Amino acid sequence: MIAPLQRSLPLPHTRLAAAAALLLAALFVVWWPSPVDADDRILIRGNYYRERSTRVLQPYISFSKDLPDERLTIGADYLMDVISSASIGAAALQLGGDKVFTEMRHEAVLRVASRLREWSLGSFFRYSTETDYESRSVGLSLARELRQKTITLGANYAYTHDRAFRILANVPGVRIPWKSKVPSEDDPTDFVDGPTNVLQVHNASLGYNHVLTRTLLASLQVEGSHARGPQENPYRRVRNGMEEVHPLLRRRLAVSGSARYAIPKARLALEPRYRFSADDWGVRTHAPQLRLHARVLPELSLRARYRYYIQNAAEFWSPTGDYAATDRYRTADPKMGAFDSHTVGLQITYRFDRLATSPSTRWLRGSWIQATYDHVFVDRDEYRFGNARIGSLALSLPF
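The structure assignment produced for this chain is given below.
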């Protein structure tokens, strides 16, 4: 959420930490007993994100176990973000360049799910922490199958409680609660601290899935969010040096639909998608997408995708970056401006079932490995984040 201007660990140390986490996860999987017929599963994933001034390395591990007698599934997830960003500071300006800051984010999730005939229920708790924020989320989900499982209706709700802080003098561990600025009642040109450093977000969604024919599946989803609290970056300033000021309230609504059409003889499936969103900051987005799924071999499948994204600017966005002292809101966030992007990607999945033919390799049955790469091309020169490269490598093993 916030990119603090401080260094929590030197970059070589963060690489070692990420590698150590992946190694421990791999050893955990190798030594875990592996009954082949179980649906219980461990997923290990390494994500990578890179754009002009930011790089993120993210080791991730997920554990799920079914308890058939209680019709219960329990799960736990852990991920670590190792984020390196370039931010301009006074010392960097004197040296004529950016200064790279590195920080780490830790996130843990506990999940519980149950299935009772046509009903599915689920809940989760998530805790996330970084150098300058703490986040807690809880969520509930409910789904019902109808008409011999050809229709599924679902509802989800999640509540997030974030506390924002500001690092002082780029010193790790020295921080104060950070609050949004609001205009003073006595002088509209004077901005004072807002009422709280807590951001509260409510998210809710309704989903509808329908198997229309033996080869066609359609889905529709409506999502809404209500966020109240500080929503700008405490370290970022607009061009004339004033602090960012965003509204304390943001409400968003999104509608998305998709279809998946299978062509069995060609071992292909087409999946068009579309998503529209709007909020009360004036931002409107459109995101059509097309995915192509191909089963090249019984154990090898490919997925190619193309996504186009376009949005208009927020109502308080200034193309020049200049604001007056009397402007109620101001921002230097490039994501608040108008831009569009093109994303192309490829995913390769290999299943190890064909290799699980001997007693020594039976543990591979039901396992798979997956590699994904996406490249984002941004059509706006002043969008300083630039193009982005996104990669992922995942390994899933039953136990």
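Interim note for the steering committee: Helices lie at 11-31, 90-95. Confidence is low (pLDDT under 50) at residues 1-38, 87-97.
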